[in-house]
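Researcher: Re-running this chain for the archive, since the previous output was lost when a drive failed. Same request as before.
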Amino acid sequence: MQTPVTLERSFGSAAGGKLLSRVHWVSTFLLAVTFLSALIAEFTGADARLPEALLMLAATFSTLVALARQLPLQNVLLAASMTALIGSLAHLLCAKTGIPFGPVLFGSAAGLKLFGMLPWIVPLLWIVAVLNSRSVARLVLRPWRKMRAYGFWLLGLTALFTMLFDWALEPVTTRITHCWIWTAGGFSLTPQAAPVSNAIGWLVVTLLILAFVTPVLINKQLSKRSMPDFHPLAVWLGAIVLCGVISALHGLWVAVVTDAVIGLVTAGLAVRGARW
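Model: Regenerated structure tokens:
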């Protein structure tokens, strides 16, 4: 009597898996197209605001679809919502008080502002940065999955990779596109980087986000021989590469070298961990 039910569930699961796989490929294709469009716009000197906006939308959609292949969709949407909410609230607080990232002004180049203060890209930026950084950290730590302190290392590396993601983004958004401007009062290690308080702020806020979203991101049906997923690494590195190219086109060579080091070291660690 239970066989038909089992077969029906298996068929439904297989059909859903095929649909999700197709959506994943479509989202990856759209991400690649928008990435190339943004690069072409930069090389040709055309207005890159629309290609970059479409790239952010495509990156967010592709990130969520890739994560939905491992977790229930409701978990993915809940994690994304909490990430966007906490990150956005932190930036709204910063716009008012300068805490936790430092004194900043959001310019008109950032586009439409939520509540008249927060650029619309900020919630999406947090989703892309945090969720992909966590997946990259999982690749790096893959050989040590059974270690007792694995969870703490995952939290720490996720926060570090999220901070590095923003570190690569800052010279572009502040010195080139002027989406936001760091005002007087913040200490910076280089003239092309955000203040040190921004890096500390991203670390702290990311850890706060992870405290809330980690329970819904834990896969309750772990496979003993799960295959590594390189999609998050591609998205993460793609952002670093794009920032490096834009910085090179505008002569920000300190940022270019920094992006190259960040990208190469992270890619090497992730690939090594995935091959374990």
